[in-house]
Amino acid sequence: MTLEELITDHQKKLGDLDKVILRYVLNNKEVVSQISITDLAKATYTSKSTILRLVRKLGFAGFSEFKYFLKASVKKEKAPTEMFSELQLADIIQTIKGLEHVEWEALTDHLRNASTIYCYGTGFAQRKALDEFAKNLLQLGKRALTIPNKTELDMAMEMITKDDVVIIASLSGETENIKENLFMWTLKNVPVMSITRFGENTFANHSDFALHYKVTPFSVFKEKKVESLVALAVVVDYIFRKLTESMLEK
User: Fold this and answer.
1) Helix crossing, 48-57 with 37-44: angle to 10°?
2) pTM of this prediction?
3) DSSP state of 45
4) Model confidence pLDDT, tens digit, residues 45-77
5) How would DSSP label each residue in 133-188?
6) Pairing relationship of beta strands 218-219 and 225-226 according to DSSP bridges
C-alpha cells in the first residue's frame, strides 16, 4: 500500500496539523525518509508529539517504522520493474479496493432522489468519462447535465440547488478556480461528490462523498511521464452499476 492510499483510508481521522505534515511528506518523501523526527517537526512547524500521533493514526508503531515504509516506497517508485500493463492492472485493483469503503447506500440515495445531476470534469479525460456517465444515466430515467467549461459552470451556479447533486472529477483535487464554486455549494447545502486520485486534497475534504482512483505515473521515451486515467473510468462505471442496483432494489 502506498502513502497516498494510507492517507485516503484514514482521512477521517486526520486533523489540520496532520494534513500540513502530510503535504510536506508527500512532496519530500526521499528527504523525510532520511531525517529525524525533530527535523521533520522543525520543517513543518509542528512538534514531535504531533508527528508521533499522526504516524500512529496511519497504523505505524512509531516514526522509525514510518521512515522504513517511506524508504521502501521511494525505492519502489524509482525501480521500473513492472510492465506498463501490470501497472494498469494494479491501479484498477487498488481503485476497486478503495471503492469498497464508500457509503454506497447514502450515495446512491442522493443520486436516485436528485432532481438534476450536474457533472463537471476539470480536464479533457475527466469530462469524457463524465459524458459517458451522463448518457448512461438517461437509461435510468435520471436527468444529468455535463457542464463543458468553467464559464458555463459559473452561469449554472444559480440553478444548482440542494435538491440536485454535483459530481466533480479531477486528478489533483486542487484546481484553484473551482474552489470558489465548491465553497458556494457548501453554503447552499448542495450535495457534492468528488472523484480524485488517492490522497488528501481540497475537493475530497469538502465533499459529501469522496471517491478516489489510483494513478501510477510511468516513464516512456526520454523519461517523459505519462499519467493514465483508466481507473477514473472504472470509478464512474462502478457508480453507475451501484446506482442501477439501488434503483432495481427500490
Assistant:
1) 100
2) 0.72
3) T
4) 999 999 999 999 999 989 999 998 988 887 766
5) HHHHHHHTT--EEEE-SHHHHHHHTTT--TTSEEEEE-SSS--HHHHHHHHHHHHT
6) antiparallel
